[in-house]
Specification:
This protein has 2 domains: 99 residues, 3-Layer(aba) Sandwich (Rossmann fold), CATH 3.40.50; 185 residues, Rossmann fold (3-Layer(aba) Sandwich), CATH 3.40.50. It is 28% helix and 17% strand. The chain is built from 10 helices and 13 strands. The chain has an 8-stranded mixed beta sheet. It has a 5-stranded parallel beta sheet with strand order 2-1-3-4-5. Strand 1, helix 1 and strand 2 form a beta-alpha-beta unit. The radius of gyration is 23 Å and the shape is elongated.
């Protein structure tokens, strides 16, 4: 259902009773151009216009937010009494919800970012299972590792074909990771909060079944949101149950993993890891995680790609314009 544009609880008014233009806040001048002209009685404005006092907070009904980096902007959301909806330049929105006025709908950018994030999640595991990081180090050391010897890792090169890989999280990213790994002939076992049957008839196991699967898995992929049920899900006990030499991948949220426990397990050679998200972020230059053997890190860049750069601006601007025109925005990620 479209958001109710005529709901009087969202019609902003100035102190003197004059109706203010219904406002959608965008992040750049490019968005102003891409969104097209707003309808009568509405306007597009930059966040800078609000911050600098050029527009009235009471007029703002819709706002774009630039991903989890928008710390300062999110602090201003509670000062927008007529805010109806926001859209983030991210898939996750855990960093935002505690700062929203009650009843505000959250739209994310899964339409643009899901495939590229799933790509990162799958490729990180594939690289680790093929021992690419170890081979790259061997190249730097001018050291030839024979294909018939373990050499690259203590447990040998596992590979993807025939491997058992657990994928935790069955949102768009988790499903995308699973599909990509299955294309490489891995045995993928899907997990979510509750047991269910997926859209293609695949079985999805509950987290309560993890204990029986962790010792059998060659890799575990995390594509989970951050919430009370997932924070520090991967702790010392979880890691101790993993198969020796297994790989942990994470493209969800860094705080799903206990970093200290991961460092200890990786230093002992019990697990390896391919991480696009970590805790803390950004990772300080002197943090010990950087130098742990068997751990590869990318800087929360899972969605970054030419595809994302080419499509995110038009998608954001289109939603801002659609809101002002009273069009259906689809189902929010959170409300």
């Amino acid at each position: 259902m479209p958001l109710a544009m005529t709901d009087t609880t969202h019609v902003p008014s100035s102190a003197c009773g004059a109706t203010l233009p219904r406002t959608a806040l965008v992040l750049s001048k490019e968005h102003l151009e891409l969104a097209g002209p707003p309808p009568e009685g509405a306007r597009l404005a930059l966040w800078d216009d609000l911050v600098d006092g050029r527009i009235e907070p009471e007029s703002v009904e819709f706002a774009l937010l630039g991903g989890f980096q928008s710390r300062e902007l999110r602090e201003r959301l509670r000062d927008l009494p007529n805010l109806v909806a926001v859209r983030t330049v991210s898939i996750g929105y855990d960093w935002l919800v505690d700062h929203l006025p009650p009843g505000v709908a959250v739209y994310n950018s899964s339409d643009v970012m899901t495939d590229t994030t799933a790509e990162t999640g799958a490729l990180g595991l594939i690289a680790a299972l093929r021992a690419f990081p170890e081979h790259l180090q061997a190249q730097r050391d001018h050291r030839w590792i024979g294909h018939d010897r373990r050499g690259a890792t203590e447990h040998g090169v596992q590979g993807v074909v025939g491997s058992t890989i657990l994928v935790l999280g069955q949102g768009g990213v988790g499903r995308g990771i699973a599909e990509r790994l299955e294309a490489f002939k891995a045995r993928v076992v899907r997990f979510a909060r509750t047991t269910r049957t997926g859209a293609r008839g695949e079985r999805v196991h509950a987290f309560t079944e993890l204990d029986q699967w962790l010792p059998l898995a060659d890799a575990v992929s995390l594509a989970l949101p951050l919430n009370v049920g997932t924070e520090r899900l991967v702790d010392a006990d979880f890691l101790s149950r993993m198969k020796p030499g297994a790989v942990l991948g994470n493209v969800g949220r860094g705080r799903v993993v206990d970093t200290d426990a991961l460092i200890a397990a990786a230093r002992e050679g019990r697990v390896r890891a391919a991480l696009d998200v970590v805790d803390p972020e950004p990772l300080p230059a002197d943090h010990p995680l950087w130098d742990v053997p068997g751990v590869s890190i990318t800087p929360h860049a899972g969605a970054s790609s030419r595809h994302m750069r080419d499509n995110i601006g038009p998608a954001l601007a289109a939603m801002a314009g659609a809101y002002l025109r009273g069009e259906d925005l689809g189902a929010p990620a959170f409300s």
